[in-house]
Specification:
This protein is 31% helix and 23% strand. It is α/β, with parallel strands linked by helices and 333 residues long. It has one domain: pyruvate-formate lyase- activating enzyme (Alpha-Beta Horseshoe).
């Protein structure tokens, strides 16, 4: 992994975790700073500049380390939280909400995983009678840089102590190096965002192709890991039914499709700021030629009849392929 500049909070310069990251990357210059948020938040940078010039920030996450997820985020009637261990992603997806969230595509890695793990345990203790989920990958890909950051060890040790608590690692990455060194835990679920091959080619730049993701899923299942899938975001096309039927057929013939832990379905959606950034960054994208409306939660998405038609048809295809209905849920609907 190549970076132009590495900005490091001064107290972390001599830390073992910092050196591990530096030993794993290539960079041109190190700059010592007082606080990541003051520097990363101060400098606005065009999203597409990530193609030619990417910086790295190393710091400690301050403030709220674990946050409650919005309603309809995951499986209903259970308590969902996400924790923040990084900002931004090495991939470039045209629909990605991060382009309108940070206004800077540089990568931020937070190294105080011990404090985050303690906050996870405090959250568990504060909700003793609840079924609790923790999600990693809200602001970054959970696996793409995991061989560099090394945080999986600590989160594994933490979650292993609480067999009724679930940890979800959201990813598009096929970087399984750090993961395969771990003992599979039933309550740690690796979840893959999956789209038809045509959508990956059109909108998910620099991401692993469909075949590579399927091979990674198959390997994880063979090793005994719990795996789930996100058909999210679903992007409309005139042949959407045929595309998703091919995708489901491919999954059904390549992995243990009916053994997945769950499957979420969600259509593409944007906040106003993100939609404006998509218009600016990808003015010729097919995404912008689609019929969007402002929806119930003030997000921009397809109208409700169109959404329900898409979701119900894809759900029916999954059911016909043998996925249990109770494993399927609608995301952010």
């Amino acid at each position: 992994m190549n970076f132009e500049k590495v900005f490091i909070e001064r107290p972390l310069i001599s830390k073992k975790n910092t050196q591990k990251v530096l030993d794993s990357i290539k960079y041109q210059e190190i700059i010592e700073i007082e606080n990541v948020d003051k520097y990363f938040g101060r400098f606005k940078k065009p999203y597409l500049q990530k193609r030619t010039s990417l910086n790295l920030y190393l710091g400690e996450k301050k403030g709220q380390l674990v946050k409650q997820a919005p309603e309809a985020y995951g499986i209903s009637n259970e308590l969902h939280f996400y924790f923040i261990h990084a900002y931004n992603c090495i991939y470039e997806c045209e629909y990605c909400y991060l382009q309108g969230y940070f206004h800077n595509p540089d990568i931020v890695l937070f190294l105080n995983h011990d404090e985050i793990a303690l906050e996870i345990e405090r959250t568990i203790a504060a909700n003793p009678s609840q079924k609790i989920w923790f999600h990693a990958g809200e602001f970054s890909d959970s696996l793409a840089l995991s061989h560099i950051t090394g945080e999986l060890d600590l989160y594994w040790e933490t979650i292993e102590k609480y067999p009724d608590v679930k940890l979800e690692l959201r990813t598009k990455s096929v970087n399984l190096k750090a993961l395969l060194e771990k003992k599979p835990l039933k309550n740690v679920i690796v979840t893959y965002s999956i789209s038809p091959a045509e959508s990956i080619k059109a909108y998910e730049h620099k991401t692993p192709q469909l075949e590579a993701r399927i091979r990674a899923i198959k390997k994880l299942q063979d090793y005994g890991f719990s795996v789930a899938l996100h058909f999210d975001p679903i992007v409309w096309s005139s042949d959407i039914i045929e595309r998703y039927q091919r995708l489901i057929d491919k999954l059904n013939s390549s992995i243990h499709f009916n053994d997945i832990m769950y499957l979420s379905l969600g259509v593409v959606r944007f906040t106003k700021d993100v939609y404006n950034q998509v218009q600016q960054n990808y003015p010729h994208s097919d995404l912008l030629a689609q019929n969007f409306v402002r929806s119930f939660d003030d997000k921009i998405r397809y109208n409700k009849p169109s959404r329900l038609w898409i979701l119900n048809n894809i759900k029916s295809m999954c059911l016909n392929a043998g996925v249990d209905e109770e494993k399927i849920y609608l995301c952010m609907e």
